[in-house]
Amino acid sequence: MKKESRMEYVESVYKRYRESSKPSKTKILDELCEVCKYNRKYAIFKLRQLPNKGKPRAGPKRKRSKKYNHQVLAVIEKVWKAANYPWSLRLKEILRLWLPWIRKHYRTSPEIEAKLLSISPSTIDRALKDKKIKLKRRLYGRTKPGTLLRHKIPVRTDTWDVKRPGFLEADLVPHSGESSFGEFIFSLNLTDILSSWVETQAVMGKGQAGVVSAIEKLSGRVPFKVLGLDSDNGSEFINYHLFSWCEKKEIQFTRSRPYKKDDNAHIEQKNWTHVRKFMGWDRYDTQKALEAMNDLYDNELCLFMNLFQPSVKLQKVIRKGSRKKRVYDNPQTPLDRLVSSKHGDKEKIAEFVALRESMDPFSLSERLNEKLEHIWSLAHYRPTTPDKKKREKEKIDGLSPAEKETLESIAQVFGITVYVRPRKDGDLVAIRHG
Fold first, then answer.
1. pLDDT tens-place string over residues 262-317
2. 351 and 206 belong to one structural domain
């Protein structure tokens, strides 16, 4: 059979093939392969190449009963909000960890509790998909590199592979709003690599002495001895104040490569989960805001994130062609990771364990949100800038009528604004601004 004849036969079979049932399609394919001497897969390929003019027959819809009713999903949504919108894999562990308090607050039945413990992370994602879209926001940064002591502070080029807590990454998160003019508050963030324990302190500006004082305060609050400190290349960290303090405390001080944020991936992630998700991107530049933020960082937020919020750690990345599959360990809270590591200050760790057993995470979340509402009310949306009216008064005041007329004509011809500034000798100098 010629090629043209084969194509005509395939086209004649196509319509009948599309409208047939599955058993009939098998017979048609057998007939097509016998007539045209095609391989079965090649015959299917030729049929798929033809344009689909007719609509395929709609098969019966598969009816599936819903395993998780609205009562189960409502509890999951409430816990998700109380836990500050965690990832589904972490939320599944939170449902297990918070179950005694869930039972107390929502009076769940044994059947609902069993479903809460059996639901998968992918099902949680589907249930919360619409609500997650509303929570996305952008992240900005204002870190500037410094130059002091770079030759004395080594660059950490290897990956973190620590077996005990105490190795910290540090960074500053600015709360400048839409403008970096003037002095505003920064959040100093420290995170432990092994346990993911995070401590945060608000400082006014990023002066070197203030940052070192905040680091010294936070290092005395963590339930383990600080062994190492890694930062970016900002001048707030790369200075003699912090360098001499680390030498005095016998702390290994390293820095990342310039302009390589991936070197500080741990603290960059905590900047989002522990600062931005709570404080947002508004401007805070008053003493009241500083005190309110530190009150939250020192109490509710520290306990909520370190005692009741499980996190996951990346174990390995598996490549399958152009895709990557990331494998994580089981979700654990920073406190549980410290307990399992068998390192750190045992007395402080035991105090935190007893404190967690006596606290209600839902009540803690309510107090945290109340303090956040107060902090948000202290935000300044418009930073203080030089008064434009004062500058306008300086335009051409104090000049003679002839000088004013000359300057006004120059401004009109060139399309500029003329300002006048006094010199030390008392004469007035015309300054042109485009």
1. 667 788 888 888 999 899 888 999 999 999 999 999 999 999 999 999 988 888 88
2. yes
CA distances from 405 to 276, 374, 381, 429 (A): 54, 55, 41, 15
How, if at all, do strands 198-204 and 228-231 pair? unpaired
Model pLDDT, residue 57: 54
Q: Length of the chain in residues, anyone? A: 434
CA gap 336, 369 in Å, rounded: 25
Q: Which long-range contacts (CB under 8 A, 24 or more apart) does 301-306 make?
A: 301/200, 301/274, 301/368, 302/198, 302/199, 302/200, 303/355, 303/359, 303/364, 304/84, 304/361, 304/364, 304/365, 304/368, 305/198, 305/273, 305/274, 305/334, 306/197, 306/198, 306/333, 306/334, 306/335, 306/352
- Domain presence at residue 121: yes
Residue ranges making up the domain that contains 32 = 3-49
Structural contact between residues 326 and 317, judged by C-beta atoms closer than 8 angstroms: yes
Within a domain: 147: no
Asked if residue 340 and residue 230 are part of one domain, the reply reads yes
- 308 and 213 share a domain? yes
Q: Which of 352, 376, 400 is the last residue of a domain?
A: 376
Q: What is the pTM of this model?
A: 0.65
Average pLDDT for the chain? 81
Distances (CA, A) of 434 to 23, 408, 417: 81, 14, 6
In whole angstroms, what separates CA 281 from the centre of its chain?
Answer: 13
Residues 370 and 392 in one domain: no
Identify the three-state secondary structure at position 360.
Answer: coil
Q: Are 392 and 269 found together in one domain?
A: no
pLDDT in tens, 185-240: 999 999 998 898 999 999 998 888 889 999 999 999 999 999 988 888 888 888 88
404 part of a folded domain: yes
